[in-house]
Amino acid sequence: xxxxxxxxERLQLxxxxxxxxxxxxxxxxxxxxxxxxxxxxxxxxxxxxILQLLSQQVKxxxxxxxxxxxxxTTALLxxxxxxxxxxxxAHNASGANLENGLATALIxxxxxxxxxxxxxxxxxxxxxxxxxxxxxxxxxxxxxxxLFRDQLDRYGEVDTISKRWTKVISTLPEATVVIPNADDPxxxxxxxxxxxxxLFFGLNEPEHYLEAIPHAVDSIYCPxxxxxxxxxxxxxxxxxxxxxxxxxFTKSKPALESGExxxxxxxxxxxxxxxAAATAAKELGIDEQTIRExxxxxxxxxxxxxxxxxxxxxxxxxxxxxPVGTNETIRVVTESxxxxxxxxxxxxxxxxxxxxxxxxxxxxxxxxxxxTLVVSGDRVYDMALRLRYSQKSAQSNLNLIVEEDLRxxxxxxxxxxxxxxxxxxxxxxxxxxxxxxxxxGRKIL
Length: 445
What we know:
This protein has 445 residues and is an alpha/beta fold. It has 2 domains: 60-297, Mur-like, catalytic domain (UDP-N-acetylmuramoyl-L-alanine:D-glutamate ligase), CATH 3.40.1190; 304-440, Mur ligase, C-terminal domain (Protein-Tyrosine Phosphatase, Chain A). Helix content is 38%, strand content 16%. The protein contains 15 helices and 14 strands. It has helices at residues 2-29, 38-46, 50-55, 71-84, 99-108, 130-137, 158-169, 185-193, 268-283, 288-296, 323-334, 363-368, 380-389, 406-415, 429-440; strands at residues 62-66, 89-91, 120-125, 141-144, 177-180, 197-198, 230-236, 239-243, 304-310, 313-318, 340-344, 371-376, 398-402, 422-427. The strands form 3 sheets. Strands 2-3-1-4-5-6 form a 6-stranded parallel β-sheet, sandwiched between helices. It has a 6-stranded mixed β-sheet with strand order 9-10-14-11-12-13, with helices on both faces. Strands 7-8 form a two-stranded antiparallel ribbon. Helix 4 crosses helix 9, helix 6 (130-137) packs parallel to helix 7 and helix 9 (268-283) packs antiparallel against helix 10 (288-296). It comes from Trichormus variabilis SAG 1403-4b. Its EC number is 6.3.5.13. InterPro entries: Folylpolyglutamate_synth_CS, Lipid_II_synth_MurT, Mur-like_cat_sf, Mur_ligase_cen, MurT_C. Forms a heterodimer with GatD. Residues 65-280 form the Mur ligase central domain.
């Protein structure tokens, strides 16, 4: 009877995978998209346990990467490091990080019978579904990058998410390795409470402290006693060097000395991604030379500090989907000498329908430097209003252009970009996909 049940399960898994792969072939052949979500959705209807059944076949285990910002870049960097050592990787590289996207990534690497032959699966996971997928995936390593307010209409506050993470992670086998961000008080506290092996990553570079704690800050109170934390300095949002004067809670010690690690990607936020990937790679036994060589030749993931050349001009796409991320991309822009920026604000499901977060962004820094700001997207007038309110004087040298049509907005921004400068584009998630489709003629999803 047991063998009969096992045979039925294998046939059901094979059916789910073969139908999903056929659908993938159909969608990609007709250039309808990358088929990164729908095949997994269909397969899960046929075999609801497909995530568990496929993940069990990964030879060296699942590496799960969760957090509000940086998942795609960190996952791609770690995947590239492992591939340079000859490992075969399954990875949801398109950024589809809900359950259907995870299933699709594993299906893509399976044969028509549902057999999976990969060494590692690196899966970036939306922070809200971490508790749902930890049990079926049983990850070998969990990378916890950060927790910020993101889509307020879909997710709770960071403390709520952290408590849910802690509750589920603590039930995993002790062999599980957890790698949290030491500079994030919530995640530093999470790591200090777990029974599993915990390695931290973080910065120790006071020269990069911000002048003051930014407006878009989420967690400056002690996660243990609720008292205000004392910050020696902050690197971005609430990430920094801290202690609690009330209960003694303090920042955990990172496994790597951050000052000894260089990076090729722009932005301090990408230093965190670099350190997270390097810490995980070292834990997996990858030699330091391979890690450093990969980091120094790494190309950014699509839309994440991605550089393109359009009509002979350089274009850099900086995904900007929440207050903290947008403040950091604005920092990249204002530290450059380039004077043309395109902001694209959408309010679709992947972005979050509540765009009130733009009032927590320090757009004043972008406006103060002047130059040309082109605004577009579904909520173009909301963003234009935010920028107008950021002007301290009507006599500023800001050239604000409002253009509803995205194609025309891109053309206008390119026309205002001198040949020797870079056009920075700051889009929300769905806007980033549209921008790339316009610029490259290819869809991502």
